[in-house]
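Memo to structure team: turn this sequence into C-alpha coordinates by end of day. - J.P.
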Amino acid sequence: MILPVLAAIIRDPQDRLLIAKRKPQLTRGGYWEFPGGKLKSGESPETGIVREISEELGMSISVESIAGVVTHKYPDIEILLIAYFCLGEAPSGEPVDHDEVRWIDINDLENFSFSEADRKLIAHLYQQTD
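Reply from structure team:
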Protein backbone atom coordinates (compact mmCIF):
# COMPACT_ATOMS: atom_id res chain seq x y z
CA MET A 1 0.00 0.00 0.00
CA ILE A 2 1.24 3.46 -0.89
CA LEU A 3 0.59 6.21 1.66
CA PRO A 4 -0.28 9.65 0.23
CA VAL A 5 1.75 12.35 1.97
CA LEU A 6 1.56 16.10 1.40
CA ALA A 7 4.37 18.66 1.34
CA ALA A 8 4.20 22.44 1.19
CA ILE A 9 6.87 24.37 -0.66
CA ILE A 10 6.14 27.65 1.08
CA ARG A 11 7.51 30.93 -0.25
CA ASP A 12 7.55 34.14 1.74
CA PRO A 13 7.32 37.71 0.35
CA GLN A 14 11.16 37.71 -0.04
CA ASP A 15 10.90 34.57 -2.23
CA ARG A 16 12.62 32.34 0.35
CA LEU A 17 11.51 28.75 1.00
CA LEU A 18 10.51 27.30 4.36
CA ILE A 19 12.22 24.07 5.42
CA ALA A 20 11.88 22.19 8.70
CA LYS A 21 14.14 19.72 10.54
CA ARG A 22 12.38 16.69 12.03
CA LYS A 23 12.85 16.05 15.74
CA PRO A 24 15.44 13.31 16.32
CA GLN A 25 13.03 10.89 18.02
CA LEU A 26 10.66 10.80 15.02
CA THR A 27 10.85 8.59 11.94
CA ARG A 28 13.49 10.10 9.65
CA GLY A 29 14.45 12.34 12.55
CA GLY A 30 17.26 14.81 12.03
CA TYR A 31 16.49 15.23 8.33
CA TRP A 32 15.20 18.41 6.75
CA GLU A 33 11.95 18.38 4.80
CA PHE A 34 9.29 20.52 3.27
CA PRO A 35 6.63 20.53 6.00
CA GLY A 36 3.39 18.65 5.54
CA GLY A 37 1.83 15.38 6.56
CA LYS A 38 -0.60 12.60 5.80
CA LEU A 39 -3.67 13.08 3.65
CA LYS A 40 -6.84 12.14 5.53
CA SER A 41 -9.50 9.96 3.94
CA GLY A 42 -12.04 12.04 2.00
CA GLU A 43 -9.88 15.17 2.15
CA SER A 44 -8.65 17.02 -0.92
CA PRO A 45 -4.86 17.46 -1.07
CA GLU A 46 -5.24 21.26 -1.10
CA THR A 47 -7.39 21.20 2.05
CA GLY A 48 -5.05 18.68 3.65
CA ILE A 49 -1.90 20.73 3.16
CA VAL A 50 -3.55 23.85 4.62
CA ARG A 51 -4.69 21.79 7.63
CA GLU A 52 -1.30 20.13 8.14
CA ILE A 53 0.65 23.40 8.06
CA SER A 54 -1.81 25.00 10.46
CA GLU A 55 -1.55 22.04 12.87
CA GLU A 56 2.21 21.52 12.59
CA LEU A 57 3.46 25.11 12.41
CA GLY A 58 0.56 27.34 13.50
CA MET A 59 0.81 28.99 10.11
CA SER A 60 -1.72 30.10 7.51
CA ILE A 61 -0.84 29.44 3.88
CA SER A 62 -2.48 29.88 0.52
CA VAL A 63 -2.07 27.10 -2.02
CA GLU A 64 -0.91 28.28 -5.45
CA SER A 65 -0.35 25.20 -7.62
CA ILE A 66 0.97 21.68 -7.65
CA ALA A 67 4.77 21.55 -7.52
CA GLY A 68 5.30 17.87 -8.22
CA VAL A 69 4.56 14.30 -7.28
CA VAL A 70 7.20 11.70 -6.42
CA THR A 71 7.13 8.21 -4.99
CA HIS A 72 9.67 6.70 -2.64
CA LYS A 73 9.94 3.34 -0.94
CA TYR A 74 11.51 3.51 2.51
CA PRO A 75 12.28 0.25 4.37
CA ASP A 76 9.12 0.70 6.47
CA ILE A 77 6.69 2.38 4.04
CA GLU A 78 6.12 3.50 0.47
CA ILE A 79 4.87 7.05 0.01
CA LEU A 80 3.36 9.14 -2.74
CA LEU A 81 4.63 12.65 -1.96
CA ILE A 82 2.34 15.34 -3.37
CA ALA A 83 3.86 18.81 -3.15
CA TYR A 84 2.23 22.20 -3.58
CA PHE A 85 3.67 25.66 -4.07
CA CYS A 86 2.22 27.84 -1.31
CA LEU A 87 2.55 31.36 0.01
CA GLY A 88 2.96 32.10 3.70
CA GLU A 89 4.58 34.22 6.34
CA ALA A 90 6.36 33.40 9.60
CA PRO A 91 4.99 30.50 11.66
CA SER A 92 3.22 31.73 14.79
CA GLY A 93 3.59 28.77 17.11
CA GLU A 94 6.04 26.14 18.27
CA PRO A 95 6.55 23.43 15.65
CA VAL A 96 5.01 20.06 16.60
CA ASP A 97 7.27 17.61 14.72
CA HIS A 98 10.26 19.84 14.03
CA ASP A 99 13.01 21.23 16.20
CA GLU A 100 14.10 23.85 13.69
CA VAL A 101 12.39 25.86 10.95
CA ARG A 102 14.25 28.11 8.49
CA TRP A 103 13.64 30.37 5.53
CA ILE A 104 16.31 29.78 2.88
CA ASP A 105 17.12 30.65 -0.72
CA ILE A 106 16.27 27.89 -3.21
CA ASN A 107 19.96 27.72 -4.17
CA ASP A 108 20.83 26.73 -0.59
CA LEU A 109 18.70 23.55 -0.58
CA GLU A 110 21.74 21.41 -1.42
CA ASN A 111 23.41 22.53 1.84
CA PHE A 112 20.89 20.63 4.00
CA SER A 113 20.41 16.89 4.62
CA PHE A 114 16.93 16.11 3.33
CA SER A 115 15.05 12.81 3.53
CA GLU A 116 15.20 10.69 0.36
CA ALA A 117 11.68 11.56 -0.83
CA ASP A 118 12.33 15.27 -0.38
CA ARG A 119 15.62 14.94 -2.30
CA LYS A 120 13.66 13.49 -5.22
CA LEU A 121 11.29 16.45 -4.98
CA ILE A 122 14.21 18.92 -4.93
CA ALA A 123 15.68 17.28 -8.07
CA HIS A 124 12.26 17.68 -9.71
CA LEU A 125 12.17 21.37 -8.69
CA TYR A 126 15.64 22.04 -10.08
CA GLN A 127 14.59 20.44 -13.41
CA GLN A 128 11.63 22.84 -13.56
CA THR A 129 13.84 25.90 -13.00
CA ASP A 130 16.54 24.97 -15.58
